Amino acid sequence: MNQKIIIFDTTLRDGEQALQTSLGVKEKLQIAFALERLGVDVMEVGFPVSSPGDFKSVHTIAQKIKNSLVCALARCTEKDIDIAAAALHLADNFRIHIFLPTSEIHLQSKLKKNFDQIIEMTTHAIRYARKYTDNIEFSCEDAGRTNIDNLCRIVEIAIKSGANTINIPDTVGYTTPYQFGKIITSLCNRVPIIDKAVISVHCHDDLGMAVGNSITAIQSGARQIEGTINGIGERAGNAALEEIVMAIKIKNDILNVYTDIKHKEIYRTSQIVSKLCNLPIPTNKAIVGENAFSHSSGIHQDGVLKNRKNYEILKPENVGVKEVKLNLTSRSGRAAVKYHMKEMGYQNNDYDMDKLYKDFLELADKKGQVFDYDLESLAFITTQKKYVEFFKLKNFYVTSNSAGIATASIQLYCGKKICTYSANGNGPIAAIYSALIYITKVPINLEKYQIRAKGHNPNTLGQVDIIVSYKDRNFHGTALSADVIESSVTAIINVLNNIWRSEQVIIKKFLKKYNHK
Ligand code: KIV
Ligand code: ZN
């Protein structure tokens, strides 16, 4: 029968401790609610002794979270344990997670203690913590590099002292799946009372093996997996929980285990963590990256349109991603172009496919990625208007100061007319954006603004890529310049021109409907 894997999330402890600026209580609470909706069994939400701020957030989260077990970290000292218990005590149910290094290198150069002293500290700390709760997890820090005889010894002592979850961290991401699996197997075979505790694993990704090691540990007997959303954490990060959870689901026939995670919440949770932690998700990241469900080459796109299973082992909607994306680039075939036209509601006889495909390839060669609104203009706007830039920058003047007030004065060609406006904002981008909206009267909402350096000193250029929403549709703009303010102005103008062209299609459709020329 399938056994359950307990999902232990440490985004708010191990993940958060690696951020450049720590999160406030409000942000942590927002992430905790997202994790609760996702259905994690245990969430480790801080290390209360480390700072008053950490104490406060653990204390707040402990009172609000009802459907996941809340846990906090403590070293093997009475003070750490008292403070962790004080932070947690208003929770309906809580766990104290105690850790102590067990590897020779940590003992010698960090703690300057011998293994007998470590055993003594472990026994005392676990017994002491039991006065607050009987839900105790004990972690052998750097277990991946700990002598296996010592590891078996301390695990047995920890269970005898009252720990009911034993965590085996590969703290420095040093092991390979085969090695790590063998550690778990040895514990199962050599610790006589191992069945009195749940074996947990906690893998770091220094060699890119955190997820592989966690999955092998399941096959060797681990029943709790620790990790973080998007794999955030110390150095190269922790095991990415979304990857482990989906591997468990997709490889159920081999692993014979399940989790209680609500898979459809995965994408939303990942986005929340990325935004609040200010850590962008790599485009090609498994499960939650922007390209995880995008198909680019003509052969793949054709294959997916015939049967999604040709190139998809999991359905995007199963992790809460709304749609499969067929990127339109010069590698796309006619099938992808037709698919996008159909998605926008056009029938084959509404447009000339041969001509559209020829124009599409020409534009894709120039522009890289083509969007659905580009296809529409190619299909329906006359050749003269196709590449017209209705809005053109004549001049701009932008100032900002340390009081947080910026002003943008912009002169813009709107067709043949020159329009001018000055606007304020709490930063230069906000001021530019307001001035351009006022002039063009196009009510756009800025959804994404990204600035990247291109090239090397002294010739670095600033590329600005933006996405705006307008009438329930996303439009993209991009610009490159040595002056990032100029790239910002021209990227917004670029998007406004894309919208203008798209509006020409709508006007044309309207005129056609009422038989005007
Ligand atoms: O990586 C590690 O060893 C840890 C422990 C505190 C569990 O984060
Ligand atoms: Zn860790």
How is the secondary structure organized here?
Layout lengths: L2 E2 L1 E4 L1 H5 L9 H14 L3 E3 L7 H13 L4 E7 L2 H11 L5 E8 L2 H8 L3 H15 L6 E6 L6 H14 L3 E6 L6 H14 L7 E6 L6 H11 L3 E4 L13 H10 L1 H4 L1 E2 L7 H12 L16 E2 L2 H9 L18 E2 L7 H10 L9 H15 L4 H9 L2 H4 L4 E10 L5 E9 L2 E9 L2 H13 L4 E10 L6 E10 L2 E9 L2 H30 L4
Parallel strand pairs: 1-10, 2-3, 2-9, 3-4, 4-5, 5-6, 6-7, 7-8, 8-9, 11-12
Antiparallel strand pairs: 13-14, 14-15, 16-17, 17-18
Helix pairs in contact: 2-3, 2-12, 3-4, 6-7, 7-8, 8-9, 13-14, 15-16, 16-19, 18-19
Bound molecules: 3-methyl-2-oxobutanoic acid (KIV) and zinc ion (ZN).
The site of 3-methyl-2-oxobutanoic acid has 9 residues, from strand 6 and strand 7.
Subunit structure: Homodimer.
Keywords: Acyltransferase, Amino-acid biosynthesis, Branched-chain amino acid biosynthesis, Cytoplasm, Leucine biosynthesis, Manganese, Metal-binding, Transferase
Function: Catalyzes the condensation of the acetyl group of acetyl-CoA with 3-methyl-2-oxobutanoate (2-ketoisovalerate) to form 3-carboxy-3-hydroxy-4-methylpentanoate (2-isopropylmalate).
> What is the number of helices?
19
Mean pLDDT over the full residue set: 92
- How far apart are the termini? 70 Å
Give the quaternary arrangement of the chains: single chain
Structural class determined from secondary elements: alpha/beta
> CATH topology of the largest domain, anyone?
TIM Barrel
How big a fraction of the residues is strand? 15-25%
Q: Tell me, briefly, the overall form.
A: elongated
Which molecules other than protein and nucleic acid are bound? 3-methyl-2-oxobutanoic acid, zinc ion
Q: What do we call the CATH homologous superfamily of the largest domain?
A: Aldolase class I
CATH architecture heading of the largest domain? Alpha-Beta Barrel
In percent, how helical is the residue content? 40-55%
The total number of structural domains is 3
Order of adjacent strands in the largest pleated sheet: 2-3-4-5-6-7-8-9
* Contiguous uncertain segments of 5+ residues: none
Radius of gyration, in Å, reads 28 Å
Main sheet specs: 8 strands, parallel, barrel
CATH class of the largest domain: Alpha Beta
Tell me the total number of β-strands.
18
Subunit structure: Homodimer.
Function: Catalyzes the condensation of the acetyl group of acetyl-CoA with 3-methyl-2-oxobutanoate (2-ketoisovalerate) to form 3-carboxy-3-hydroxy-4-methylpentanoate (2-isopropylmalate).
Pathway: Amino-acid biosynthesis; L-leucine biosynthesis; L-leucine from 3-methyl-2-oxobutanoate: step 1/4
EC number: 2.3.3.13
